[in-house]
DNA sequence: TAATGAGTGTTATGAAATAACATAATAGGA
DNA sequence: TCCTATTATGTTATTTCATAACACTCATTA
């Protein structure tokens, strides 16, 4: 977890960016959570001493972190999750468990290529790809 | 377009459901649009004589139509598009052009299977899959 | 005819995200 | 060092997206 912050710092430097205080706080909170979080949950905790802050502060931090690949936004339910691969630019699929709400990140280069070529046969040039799944994770399947 | 409504009616009957007036109006407006629409654009047009109606009316209709596969919701930007395959239950990928905003629907059984097995190797049982792309469509590429 | 269930109308509210403008901190260049 | 441009933050207000809750209608059926 502190590794994650250190890696994030290194990544920012390489990109000529800065991991400022609000950005760092948002990333820390997300990294400490075991499930994706809503923006307003972050807003209520990302201020000084864990107090609330204002929406734009958090949304700006989230935009920044998403752009660098340090955080992923789950479009289906507008939640955010820290990336555990420290800033990959390759696309990933995010599978969210309907029971425990934990998110699993899966790389899928081959799938991306298939979709890219499927799009291309229709003349569509893919620039961004979102793949999200819902279902049941292993732990919850065993517990059931 | 009138075909689409007829097919929708048939589909509803088969499912033991009814394509009531508000549902039909919403579907008609979506089918007539060449780009995905926001819910509040529908709200402002889905009433009697093209007048505005209330949010729950439209959201209920959208929920219904999405469940039957007659309409797809694009999660990235909370828009809705009429399906031109009249109620398939198979998953599809939706590619939205960043220039003209038109949506292209692509079936992807093979991709779904790859993702399903990728998920399964991690013990994750996939129940729902969202695949959305962004990029440039053929028309816009040629126009540029 | 009562009771059920599905669907709608309506009011109000909740939740997610951004616009717009002011202020502060930072980094270069003269 | 001082000025200036840039980057980021703080703050207020607003917009956009979605649902809760409750009353009402209408068809089905016991
Ligand atoms: Zn990641
Ligand atoms: Zn689970
Ligand atoms: Zn479809
Ligand atoms: Zn286009």
UniProtKB/TrEMBL annotation, chains A, B:
Q: Which domain of life is it from?
A: Bacteria
Q: Which InterPro entries match?
A: FUR, Fur_C, WH-like_DNA-bd_sf, WH_DNA-bd_sf
GO biological-process terms attached to the record: negative regulation of DNA-templated transcription; regulation of secondary metabolite biosynthetic process
Question: Where does the chain bind Zn(2+)?
Answer: 97, 100, 137, 140
Question: How the cofactor binds, per note?
Answer: Binds 1 zinc ion per subunit.
The record's Gene Ontology cellular component field reads:
cytosol
Q: Which cofactor does it need?
A: Zn(2+)
Per UniProt, the keywords (alphabetical) are: DNA-binding, Metal-binding, Repressor, Transcription, Transcription regulation, Zinc
Q: Does the keyword Nucleotidyltransferase apply?
A: no
Q: Which GO terms describe its molecular function?
A: DNA-binding transcription factor activity; transcription cis-regulatory region binding; zinc ion binding
Entry similarity comment: Belongs to the Fur family.
* Cross-referenced PANTHER family: ZINC UPTAKE REGULATION PROTEIN
What's this protein's name? Zinc uptake regulation protein
Q: Which gene is transcribed and translated to give this protein?
A: zur
């Amino acid at each position: 977890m502190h590794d994650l912050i250190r890696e994030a710092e290194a990544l920012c430097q390489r990109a000529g960016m800065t991991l400022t205080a609000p950005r760092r706080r948002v990333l820390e909170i997300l990294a400490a959570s075991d499930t994706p979080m809503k923006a307003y949950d972050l807003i209520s905790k990302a201020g000084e001493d864990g107090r609330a802050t204002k929406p734009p502060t958090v949304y700006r931090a989230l935009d920044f972190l998403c752009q660098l690949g340090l955080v992923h936004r789950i479009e289906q339910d507008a939640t955010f999750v820290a990336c555990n691969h420290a800033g990959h630019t390759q696309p990933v699929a995010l599978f969210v468990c309907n029971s425990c709400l934990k998110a699993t990140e899966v790389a899928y280069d081959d799938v991306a290529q298939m979709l890219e070529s499927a799009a291309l046969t229709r003349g569509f040039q893919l620039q961004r790809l979102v793949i999200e799944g819902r279902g049941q994770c292993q732990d919850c399947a065993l517990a059931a």
